[in-house]
Design a protein that fits this description.
KAE1/TsaD; binds magnesium ion; binds adenosine-5'-triphosphate; alpha/beta; 10 strands; single chain; globular; 5-stranded mixed sheet; binds fe (iii) ion
Length: 339
């Protein structure tokens, strides 16, 4: 069956079309240019942009796949978590398309979709696998017996998400929003061993994360240098901060694999696009005998293909479709795969 996925949880209007795990189209309109000058996503602006972008982005996806509306067999949509107003535009559009086309509707969890998307690139997920979700709003370790049915939370951040830490440290360093890609780039010219920043909760015996102490430590270090009239070498600070984040992430992910005796690790979410995280995770997984899967960077950040991918799994699993009454749930828990 052909599944069309709709993603509007943040600033991206993403439309994906898949057949099984074959990606046929993935079109994205982003309102990030309108938010960047505010240093964060402005909810009202995002909602309006989704409304304006919805029809053209759906039409572009159909054109990319060489399909007509009448070819679509099911609609999947991000039902949460995310910005309430932004989600609502996507959910309302999805209901309209499902009703108008007479096809089933599947409301899916955005975070589970960040995990499911990898199948479009690397085939069916091993059951079970450990998934580390690292994004703008979340940082979690998950045991995933079956991404269509059952996701178990093993640990998560107790304060900032990994992506949030990247974005806040970027601001301290005078880099644009969202800062993750800029830190990644700046860090390539610096040394990750230049400054020893703290590794929060590293050996505390939990699978939780903490990044706010690290963020504060970077800000204090920069302030102290500037106060004493010394220059701040942005690439070294970026690289040392990034090293602290990815060191903790990769160690905890492998601790989870060991604890649950699982030999397949998947990393998803926007921060999984980070080049140093990808390299260090590969190195450490190789040493530990764990198979690593990370989607290509364009599938790590928000997109419609991830929603279509999870929708496709739900269709294949024979899950009962959602009703046309489903709400948009801004705080949908990670363990609720579909609504
Ligand atoms: P959530 O998925 O938790 O709802 P979100 O959808 O806003 O949050 P994503 O689009 O999955 O988040 O990821 C965006 C985050 O990823 C931002 O914080 C951004 O800075 C970060 N990010 C993107 N690319 C990179 C990179 N190369 N290195 C580090 N961080 C990155
Ligand atoms: Mg985004
Ligand atoms: Fe996301």
């Amino acid at each position: 069956p052909l599944v069309l996925g709709i993603e509007t949880s943040c600033d991206e209007t993403g439309i994906g079309i898949v057949r099984g795990h074959t990606l046929l189209a993935n079109t994205i309109a982003s309102s990030m240019d309108e938010h960047a000058r505010f240093g964060g996503v402005v909810p009202e602006v995002a909602s309006r942009a989704h409304l304006e972008a919805m029809t053209p982005t759906v039409e572009a996806a159909l054109a990319e796949a060489g399909l007509k509306f009448s070819d679509i067999d099911a609609i999947a949509v991000t039902a949460g978590p995310g910005l309430a107003g932004a989600l609502l535009v996507g959910v309302a559009a999805a209901k309209s398309y499902a009703l108008g086309l007479g096809v089933p509707l599947y409301g899916v969890n955005h975070l589970a979709a960040h995990v499911a998307v990898d199948q479009l690139e690397h085939g069916p997920l091993p059951k079970p696998c450990i998934a580390m979700l690292v994004s703008g709003g979340h940082s979690s370790l998950l045991l995933v017996p079956d991404v269509a049915e059952d996701v178990i939370s093993l640990g998560s951040t107790v304060d900032d998400a990994a992506g949030e830490a990247f974005d806040k440290v970027a601001r301290v360093l005078g880099l644009p929003f969202p800062g993750g890609p800029y830190i990644d780039r700046a860090a390539r010219e610096g040394s990750g061993m230049a400054i020893a920043f703290p590794r929060g909760k590293l050996d505390d015996g939990t699978l939780d994360f903490s990044f706010s102490g690290l963020k504060t430590a970077v800000a204090r270090w920069v302030e102290a240098r500037e106060a004493s009239g010394q220059s701040v070498h942005v690439p070294d600070v970026a690289a040392s901060f990034q090293e602290a984040v990815v060191d903790v992430l990769t160690r905890k992910a492998l601790q989870a694999c060991r604890k649950y005796d699982v030999h397949d690790l998947l990393i998803g979410g926007g921060v999984a696009a980070n080049s140093r995280l990808r390299a260090l995770a590969q190195e450490r997984c190789d040493a530990a005998g764990v198979r690593l899967r990370v989607p290509r960077p364009g599938l790590c950040t928000d997109n419609g293909a991830m929603v279509a991918a999870l929708g496709s799994d739900l269709v294949a699993a024979g899950v009962t479709p959602s009703t046309l009454e489903i709400p948009a749930d801004s705080s949908l828990p990670i363990t609720t795969v579909h609504v």
